[in-house]
Amino acid sequence: MDDERTWSIAELADEYGVTLRTIRFYEEQGLLTPARDGTRRIFADGDRVRLGLVLRGKRLGFPLDEIKKIIGMYDAEPGEVGQLRYLLDQIEHRRAELEQRRRDIDATLSDLAELERRCRADLNRLTG
Amino acid sequence: MDDERTWSIAELADEYGVTLRTIRFYEEQGLLTPARDGTRRIFADGDRVRLGLVLRGKRLGFPLDEIKKIIGMYDAEPGEVGQLRYLLDQIEHRRAELEQRRRDIDATLSDLAELERRCRADLNRLTG
DNA sequence: CCCGTACTTGACGTTTACGTTAACGTAAGT
DNA sequence: ACTTACGTTAACGTAAACGTCAAGTACGGG
Question: Which domain holds residue A70?
Answer without folding.
Answer: 1-75
